[in-house]
Specification:
The structure holds 2 protein chains of 2 kinds. Chain A is built from 12 helices and 11 strands. By secondary structure, chain A is of the alpha+beta class. Chain A is elongated. In chain B, helix 1 links the parallel strand 1 (8-12) and strand 2. In chain B, helix 6 (160-170) packs across helix 8. The two termini of chain B are 28 Å apart. In chain B, 40% of the residues are buried. The chains are: A alpha+beta, B alpha/beta. Chain A binds chain B through residues 337, 340-341, 344, 348, 351, 355, 364, 366-369, 371-379, 392, 394, 400, 405-406, 409, 515, 517, 520-522, 524, and chain B through 86-87, 89, 107, 109, 159-161, 164, 187, 191, 194-197, 199-200, 202-203, 212-216, 220-224. Chain B: The modification 4-aspartylphosphate is found at residue 57. Chain B: One of its GO terms (molecular function) is phosphorelay response regulator activity. Chain B: Residues 132-231 form the OmpR/PhoB-type domain.
Chain lengths: 524, 231
């Protein structure tokens, strides 16, 4: 009985060792870098051997079947904690310990009775089966919880993308996500139009094309243990490009990881598609605005410029007829001159507005004293309106501000011109400049009729005039030009009526941090 | 020419209406006027008629007006008055840096045009004599030999830089001096991009010589271009 049982033991052990080895590659999940498999096996050996030794003094009181169940319990615990492979190790080691410690003869592997052999084998089979099933359950549970985690991450990603409006924002948000989730570096989205070009030394165009054509995930390992991944970004309206990034090799080595990356890529593709459509929508909107501007310009030209031009032609004809007295002729000629100048100013405003609204307003800013710009504007105002009373109150020690002087001069000119045009000739125009917290405030006030209450909110809009039927020439551009310019400087402009009549326009421009002028003293 | 006492002005402008208006205005004032519609023709006219003043439009069909100024300045110091449209802010500064003396923005009035023309023609002989040792404006006097500035006889304290700046500007009255030009003259060539230097010192100078610095009488600002000194 002894010899066959020993041979049988060997056979059984051999089979189980084979199962143990075969079970290894079945594990599809990516292994974390620090593998707990080794620890699991150690724990299995430790738990079984210490348990066996602890229980060994009690072997006289314990039924052999109960002891076998205890071993099975240990295997289950190890399966839950460490998975299949340590569980199988525990089962094997457990059955050996069982045979060695508890099956008589004690402290010998020899099994004298067939019944004992049978119980040892049954224990082994049960332990392995239970261990296997438990570890599979654990695997599923782990898999499910990891999927939940991934879903939560992807959900967060999708949410972040929902807040991204432009293509650049989408790519930025995707980069942050990939950096955090798969430790990606060198992230780049290659657009379909870029695919045939040489982009950068990191990108292999052949791989990009292969990825796009075969619609597959491609990874190309690098020498430093990383890998360049190429993922197709496919959305409903077609390919949005190819995502390229560098990551650790382990990040792209399993199907699950690739699947995860591909899911993220499809979320990204949809966001890119959306941003593309959003850009088209925005472009359409701009085009629409340009068209409405064009029609406003046309109506302005047809009404507001044709009227003074008609008057102009009429006055010239009168002079040409030669029936006007010399004194009267001089007045008419002066009127003609003023009319022509006013048309010219309106043309300038129209062109200016067209230039300002044509696209991005480029400011040529420089740090300069406000009073210099104000002084230069007043110099021109005085050239045109010599006798108008203008009071100027500029507080001392105003800080310099970083402005495009040519444009700010346009703003001041437009506001002063408005004040002069609308307020009665014998009332003064009051100009002041002072510092208010972090801003420099310029105000231009008059004692004219003020702004009608219903127009005060719209006064800065294009082609809006405070008084629709007014004998003051103009087409409603000056204030919207002023607003555009001031806002481009990060400032704001407001209009309000003064208590007791008249209106006040206030411009606030941020002071910022001027460069240190003291350092600029040069040796003389 | 100067023998007959009549000064010749060359008008270079490709737009016929504007050229005619300018020519008419000048002729009514008694100037002898020659015209050119292209830079090529202008070069020929400038060489054959030797005008006392050139009025030049920057937007010429055959060549950039600024290039014309650079070529012309290689052999002539005759004042140049530039006509520019509002949109040509940069080429205006470029033209002044290239050697133009003054500019007028279209549309301009005849009175303004004639005033500039007279100012430029008047300035010519003083420049030929070299800088005067004594410059006077308003109730100020600059003694260039002793480096003293006085107002109604009372000396005014100026720093070295302020003094240099004031003398240079006062010696070029009526002329538009660009930021670059002033920086190169007062601080030297390496400082030409540091426009803030200039703004700060002009500010100091105005505090010292202007009655109301915000509404200067002598040192006028040409926004985006530079300064003009009115004596």
């Amino acid at each position: 009985m002894k010899r066959p049982s020993a041979a049988m033991q060997q056979l059984i052990y051999g089979i189980f060792i084979r199962i143990f080895i075969a079970s290894q590659p079945m594990n599809l999940l990516p292994k974390p870098v620090y593998s707990p498999a080794m620890a699991g096996h150690l724990w299995a050996v430790l738990v079984i051997s210490s348990g066996s030794l602890l229980l060994s003094p009690a072997r006289a009181f314990l039924d052999l079947s109960n002891v076998a169940l205890l071993y099975v319990l240990a295997v289950v615990i190890i399966a839950v904690r460490f998975g299949r492979s340590p569980a199988i190790a525990a089962a094997l080691f457990g059955s050996l310990s069982f045979a060695y410690v508890f099956v008589p003869p004690h402290f010998s592997l020899a099994i004298t009775e067939t019944q004992y052999l049978l119980s040892a084998v049954i224990m082994l089979v049960v332990a392995i089966l239970v261990g296997h099933l438990t570890s599979r359950l654990k695997q599923h549970a782990d898999f499910a919880s990891r999927k939940t985690g991934e879903s939560a991450e992807l959900y967060g990603f999708a949410q972040a993308l929902a807040g991204a409006l432009t293509r650049d924002e989408v790519i930025q948000s995707a980069s942050r996500f990939l950096e955090a989730s798969v430790q990606a570096q060198d992230i780049r989205v290659i657009t379909p139009s870029e695919m045939d070009q040489e982009l950068d030394p990191l990108t292999k165009p052949a791989l990009v094309r292969q990825c796009a054509e075969k619609k597959m995930f491609i990874s190309s390992p690098t020498r430093d243990g990383h890998s360049y991944a190429y993922v197709l970004l496919n959305a409903a309206s077609g390919t949005q490009g190819v995502l390229r990034f560098k990551t650790a090799l382990a990040g792209v080595s399993s199907d699950a990881a690739v699947e995860y990356i591909e899911t993220a890529a499809s979320v990204l593709a949809v966001a890119l598609e959306r941003s593309h459509f959003a850009e088209i929508a925005r472009a359409t909107e701009i085009k629409h605005a340009a068209e409405s501007l064009r029609s406003s310009v046309l109506s302005a030209l047809s009404h507001d410029l044709r009227t003074p031009l008609t008057a102009l032609v009429g006055m010239v004809d009168t002079v040409v007829l030669g029936k006007v007295s010399p004194e009267r002729q001089k007045t008419v000629l002066e009127a003609i001159r003023n009319q022509a100048l006013s048309i010219s100013r309106q043309m300038t405003n129209l062109l200016e507005m067209a230039r300002l609204s044509a696209g991005k307003l480029e400011l040529k800013t420089a740090w300069q004293p406000v009073d210099e710009v104000l002084g230069a504007t007043l110099q021109q105002v005085r050239a045109q309106w010599k006798d108008r009373e203008i009071t100027v109150d500029v507080s001392a020690e105003l800080p310099p501000i970083n402005i495009d002087a040519v444009l700010i001069e346009r703003v001041l000119w437009n506001l002063i011109e408005n004040a002069i045009k609308y307020a009665p000739a014998d009332t003064p125009i009051e100009i002041a400049a002072r510092q208010l917290a972090g801003d420099v405030e310029l105000s231009i006030c008059d004692s004219g009729p003020g702004i009608p209450a219903e127009a005060i909110d719209k006064i800065f809009d294009l082609f809006q005039r405070g008084r629709v039927e007014s004998d003051v020439p103009g087409i409603g551009l000056g204030l919207s030009i002023a607003k555009t310019i001031v806002e481009a400087h990060g400032g704001n402009i407001t209009a309000r009526n003064r208590f007791g009549g008249g209106s006040c326009f206030r411009i606030r421009l941020p002071v910022g941090t001027p460069p240190d002028f003291d350092e600029m003293e040069l040796p003389v | 020419m100067s023998d007959s006492g009549i000064e010749t002005i060359l008008v270079v402008e490709d737009e016929r209406q504007i050229r005619e208006a300018v020519v008419t205005a000048l002729e009514c004032e008694g100037f002898a006027v020659c015209e050119a519609a292209t830079a090529g023709h202008a070069a020929v006219q400038a060489a054959s008629r030797l005008p006392h003043l050139v009025i030049l439009d920057l937007g010429l069909p055959d060549r950039d007006g600024v290039d014309f100024i650079r070529d012309y300045r290689t052999w002539s110091a005759v004042p140049i008055l530039v006509l520019s449209a509002r949109s040509e802010e940069e080429s205006k500064v470029e033209a002044l840096d290239a050697g133009a003396d003054d500019y007028l923005t279209k549309p301009f009035g005849v009175a303004e045009l004639l005033a500039r023309v007279r100012a430029l023609l008047r300035r010519r002989p003083t420049e030929l004599q070299g800088a005067a040792p004594k410059i006077e404006f308003g109730d100020y006097a600059i003694d260039c030999v002793n480096r003293v500035v006085t107002r109604a006889g009372v000396p005014i304290h100026l720093t070295q830089i302020e003094y240099r700046l004031l003398v240079y500007m006062a010696a070029n009255p009526g002329r538009v001096l660009t930021h670059r030009h002033l920086l190169a003259q007062v601080w030297g060539g390496q400082a030409v991009e540091n426009h803030q230097y200039l703004r700060v010192y002009v500010g100091h100078l105005r505090q010292k010589i202007e009655d109301t610095p915000t509404q200067p009488r002598f040192i006028l600002t040409e926004i985006g271009v530079g300064y003009r000194f009115e004596s």
